[in-house]
Write a structure and sequence with these properties.
The protein is mostly helical. The chain has helices at about 1-65, 70-75. About 0% of the residues are buried.
């Protein structure tokens, strides 16, 4: 009976260690995924801001050229 308890206790300890390692791995994966998603979001936001600035510049140039007459355009 004592040998069985020892084996069950050892098996339970192995299961507990496996659960701990799995939990640690899941936390590491979730942390890495979170950093990756955050990085992509920040990069995407910067790209949108850059595109918006370029669009505004193009609209400003178009408005300026549209307001000029033919002689002003020919310079």
């Amino acid at each position: 009976m004592t040998q069985q308890r020892i084996r069950v206790g050892a098996a339970q300890a192995r299961v507990d260690r496996s659960i701990k390692r799995t939990d640690d791995l899941a936390l590491s994966v979730n942390s890495a995924l979170s950093r990756e998603v955050d990085t992509d979001f920040a990069e995407s936001t910067m790209e949108v801001q850059k595109a918006r600035a370029l669009l505004e510049a193009a609209q400003s140039i178009t408005a300026t050229i549209g307001a000029m007459n033919l002689f002003q355009r020919l310079g």
